[in-house]
Amino acid sequence: MDFLNPSFWQEFALKYGALGLAFNSFIEAIFFPIPPDVLLITLCAANPKSAFFYAAVTTLFSTLGGIVGYFIGYKGGKPLAVKFFGEEKVNRVHRLFEAYESMIILTAGFTPLPYKLFTITSGVLYASLSKLILFSIIGRGLRFFAEAALFYFYGKEITDFVQHNLNLIFTISGILLIVAFIIYRRAKKGTLP
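Structure tokens predicted for Membrane protein YqaA, SNARE-associated domain (193 residues):
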């Protein structure tokens, strides 16, 4: 058994269904390298009419795993970060993260960026847990429900498109979201040219 092979997880999804999806979504938000999209796409292709249910399971358990990742970072991460990077760098990243934490978490949840790095970093930097939960639900939900909607409306025939194009679409959308946020912040401060 190759736990890092996506085909193993596709078979796992078909065998264990929503329970396997919940398990993968939870552990991926903490440490596991296989994204829940692999299982979500497999289950949605197998049963498109249940796609929104699978998206809800993925969103919920990914967010719950993110909370655990947060507490791992919160309880032991800052001393390690200071040891490896120095207090000045950690404080600089903390100020940056604090200023943009909502956008950072939303973008991490929505794009193919490794979500777990941001959940643990949120804990290391003592970010707002309530913001982590809220923007994880929004970001993860947007991503997973968008995938589910494609399967619900187009069926398993959309599988190839989703597997080969969705990460690029989410990345471009994430970049546009960041640009829109920066323009909004500057307009609010009155610093637009």
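The chain has one domain: 6-189.
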